[in-house]
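LOG
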Amino acid sequence: MESWRLIDLDKADPFTAQTFYEAVALAVSRALSPNTLLLVQPSSPYVCLGFHQELGREIDLEYCKKMELPIIRRSQGGGATYLNSNQVFYQVVASKESTIIPVRAEELFEKLLRAPVLVYRRLGLAAEFKPINDVVVGGRKISGSGAGLIDSAVVLVGNIILDLDYESMSHVLKVPSEKFRGKMAKTMSEWVTSLKRELGHVPEVESIKGLIAEAFEEVLGINLQKAETNEEERRIWEEEVKSKHRLTEWLQMGGGRRLSDSLRAVKIAGDIHVAEVDHKAAKLIRVRAELQGQEIQDISITGDFFMMPEETILHLEAALKGTRLEEAELEKRISRLFRETGVQIPGMVPRDFVEAILKLREALPH
């Protein structure tokens, strides 16, 4: 039986709550720390942006500034979201050499999300795991999660939702109209739920934390020992992690390589166009490209998907430059990159990206 640390960060400021586990992951990768389960609640609200998402495209920056909401880009994929102290985060950090941690992303979600399912069930709710990475009650989402690799550490993060502020959730996102926002808030309330909504009250937080620890011990077959963060983790967080997340370049990541025009198709000159398309596979893929005729000159691929490792998206974009919008050529290049890198994108396959990029042809004038 493996012995892991259990670290309770209690209520922590947004940057600590959202990013300290990255320092732990780097420490685990460097053999400075053992495998760890962290528990934490944000002490105040903030907005979290997915690794692959575009800041100005996803977030209502004016509203966030007005409400003094920090915006933090996480190191995993997924969508933008509003977070506050009505969530208890669990953050699993383990060496990929661990024999109890699945290698494949889908298997990682399926195995580790048994823990929050157990927590909700022991609180009296008929929770179920819903692939790729959700926990649902009565068909409504009650927990979200994300996973990734940080150096050689496997990370899975998720939450137990105590209560939800649907209005704030809808207001932090950038939308085309207030009518759309109203519809979005209504849809959120129909499809996302919480302990307070389902039980009529919020259970005591310390008891929930105890249930989380017990559930992960049971699911993983480990022994959790309460511990504190160590000096190396705190140093790594201060010198490497926090400094990175506070950089404007990190928050606006890709600003220099993302094409700025948000229109669906714009003629620049001659046969040069900028085009943008959305493709809904298991997750959203948004493709924006500069095209000369049918040839890709520059390309940006964003969305709310997960990719392990996340940086592989840069290699994919580079591999597609100079490629024509022809199915066989795209299939060959994308499949080869997936094969050679061993990248994992839970719930998605190379064909999803081929179909997304081929949609660029539809955006061009005929």
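LOG (cont.) second protein
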Amino acid sequence: MNNKYEIIIGIEVHVQLKTKTKLFCACPVEFGGQPNTNICPICSGLPGVLPTMNQKAVELAIKAGLALNCQIAQNSIFARKHYFYPDLPKGYQITQYKEPLAFSGFLNINNTKIRIRRLHLEEDSGKSIHSGNESLVDFNRCGIPLIEIVTEPDFRSPEQAVQYLQTLRQIMRYLEVSDCDMEKAHFRCEPNISIRPIGQEKFGVRTELKNLNSMHNVKEALEFEFVRQSKLLDNNQKVIQETLFWDEQTKTAGPMRGKEESEDYRYFPEPDLPVLHIDSEKIEEIRETIPLLPWQRKQVLIEQMKLPEHIVDIITENKDFADYFDKTIQEINEPRLVANWLVTEVRAILNEKVLSIQQFPITPRRTAELLKLLKEQKITNLSAKEIFTEMVISDNSPSEIAQAKQLFIEEDNELLLTTVKQVIEENPDVVLKYKNGKTTVIGFLIGAVSKKMMGKVSAANIKDILVEQLK
């Protein structure tokens, strides 16, 4: 990137709230339904209708605000934001403007404090679909509850902006405020970007980027826009304040429309909705429902359970996965054993079968039963993997599967001794390395013995006899 200029980024994020119905009516919130089927006179903007507030949406918005260290306004006001697009049937959007539900928050990203200016409730617009010379409008999305989270211009690199978005999305999922599926438009971000010569205090002219449906697109679009604006300034040209549309195919941004200012929307108070009053008792009641957030959970696993950080990062990345870990730990208090098994074996099956942890057919209790057999050395690690694979398609317990497949360890010490001697004779070069001080090669000999014994002998017993025979 050009080292003459500094990039300044602020981000607006729209998060679709996880409610069953829309913000001001009883229409269902569903993705992928037939166009214009989940609508009613209220959300389609017919004359004479009155909005009714969705209490669940308010509670989820407060929960999100508290998790982002925001102050919650006990009195907030809705407004009408006027603009005229085909997918906005009323000709205005009900949102919050001067007096939002939450304000003055922050989120720490790698020890950098990203200030959150405001978090407010609003309704979504519909969706325009362009095909050839035709433009179609689907109003199903009209009225779906959103929160808009607006930061101060505190980002100084595309990478920092992406990390913020990833952290914010993770928090919303932990709170169960939203599914945050970018492909379904549950989590939409609109960065504002300007540049200025390094050392200059005054901000440059900003542009806004839209149509960013993945974190990769966000990074690429910000990098593109930084280069574009840099070239304009290098050639003594002006940056125009406008909204840009990101084209994922060409990896370029093009003009969509002029960037509006707040006065262009002609805000005024929504006359059909009263002041939204939230008493302090309700705020504290919602605060009590906030679970341990990712970094708090990570701290517990590292400090109390002594797990390595790279393993903890994987476990805590997804709340449902972390919950599965916790439920397994409740059945068998062996954090390292459970963590290693989940990160390797469970994730391998999830990836192979393209499942989420919520769809995983093996319960935490069943996983714990298997790990208890492994811990008590009743089965080998190789047998445990075989049993686990069977558990995916069977309702039988780990013990029943082990019994049916004859995988319980029933060691014949005479046969084991004979096999160890045979492996030593077959691998003179490895034995010589061991006797010359390279003791790590014993792992190869253990594996060779285990293979000959069909994986039915514990590695600990094999090692004991090998060490004795190699003296």
